[in-house]
Amino acid sequence: KTQQANEVLKGKVLELLKASENPLTVSEVLTLANDPALTSNQKVSSLLRLLKDEGKVERLEEKRKAYFRAI
Q1: Is the pLDDT of residue 29 over 70?
Q2: What is the model's pTM?
Q3: CA-based, 20 to 30 A from 62: which of 25, 26, 33, 69?
């Protein structure tokens, strides 16, 4: 059940990244998602890591801050 919910949330996060012209931070994704199921930076970070492992998201680092964008 949790895994299915995570798949839906990963889809939402990916759509946000695709819609954004610029790479987003974890905090920006959390703010833009405005979804009660995404309750914390840790949750967003975990979903982004899963998406990165699936090859759907790229992680960039600038001035020691992580940014993510859809591939």
Answers
A1: yes
A2: 0.90
A3: 33
What does the DSSP assignment read for 15-51? HHHHH-SS-B-HHHHHHHH--TT--SHHHHHHHHHHH
| Largest interatomic CA distance in the chain | 38
Whether the CA torsion 47, 53, 59, 65 is positive or negative: it is positive
Beta bridge partners of 60: 67
Task: Give the residue among 29, 34, 5, 7 at the shortest CA–CA distance from 19.
Answer: 29
Orientation of helix 41-53 relative to helix 26-33, angle to 10°: 110
CB-CB neighbours of 23 under 10 Å: 17
Which residues, in sequence order, are CB contacts of 52 under 8 Å at separation 6+?
A: 58, 59, 68
The residue count for the chain: 71
